[in-house]
Amino acid sequence: MTTKEKILVTGVAGFIGSKVAELLLKNGYSVVGVDNINNYYSPKLKFHRLNLLQNFCDFQFYNIDVENFVELEELFASNKFVSVINLAARAGVRASIENPYIYVSTNIVGTLNLLELMRKYSINKFVLASSSSVYAGEKVPFRENMRVDYPISQYAATKKSAELLSYTYHHLYAIDVSVLRFFTVFGPAGRPDMSYFQFIEKIRKGIPITIYGDGSQKRDFTYIEDIANGVLSSMKPLGYEIINLGGGRSPVSINYMIELIENTLHRKALIEYQPFNNADMSETGADISKAKVLLGWQPEIDFETGMNNTIKWHLQNESLLNSL
Ligand SMILES: NC(=O)c1ccc[n+]([C@@H]2O[C@H](COP(=O)([O-])OP(=O)(O)OC[C@H]3O[C@@H](n4cnc5c(N)ncnc54)[C@H](O)[C@@H]3O)[C@@H](O)[C@H]2O)c1
After folding, report:
1. Annotated active-site residue in 40, 155, 169, 196
2. pTM of this prediction?
3. Which one, 120, 171, 190, 205, has the greatest CB density within 10 A?
């Protein structure tokens, strides 16, 4: 009998973590998932995602905070992981301005805890979720070799810090690291703080939506299934590589996204305008040629198809959404 390779996924109750865990399980891995189920957004949605994962017999969940070294160490001591995929984070740009300390403790100290335990327990493969937000100030398309030394939010600063710490552990202890810079991930069961999620919910209920700026800002949206595939393909030995996982097509404006939602829901959005927030980027766009070469990865789902799937999920999960 062959034993399954065991992967530690942090942030497993999150939007991306739950999809990555599902894909790992479907691909024959055993998954140990960790999450502290914090209330940055409704834990009900996190439990909803976790419930779906509990259907797999090779899935185990632990309510652990990645900031808690002692509890994490118990997990490392009792499991032999082949890889650690770190998706746990405080992930909102605006919230990082209001509460920077929690961003530093989770995104930086949490990452350090995992790297230290990987060193101690000789685990060689680390996949780290980073973000397009580190590219602030650069011109699109964003390439991995651009200098990204000027983060414009505490969130971006913590993501860059986690990248740097991972490099240090690669240099000192030969831990193999894939740093993945995700670009505006969207899809079913997404994050309620993200604009597409709020727009779908509010437009369908006839509640006014808020646009910061004039709505011409653009994002390189990437569909959740493409991201999960990208994470799995990055689990191979690479040394230390930073890789963009982005839509890689023409970035989409907020105004276009609203129009698409309006047309699909057959409802007009009520729009309130607020000044552009200077922790926001006006445009993101990924050069994804490195992901194609190193991982053989490219996104398969276009924005319109992905948004249709997402809106369908919102319509099919009304009672869950109304309870959040
Ligand atoms: N969604 C995006 O568009 C996007 C873009 C770029 C980068 N990312 C990164 O991808 C990763 C996953 O993001 P997401 O969109 O799934 O966010 P999410 O908030 O849905 O998932 C993060 C999960 O981590 C958990 N978590 C937070 N702090 C924790 C802690 N201290 N200990 C244990 N668990 C903790 C949360 O409870 C949550 O379930 C994050 O690192 C995020 O920064 C996301």
Report:
1. 155
2. 0.98
3. 190
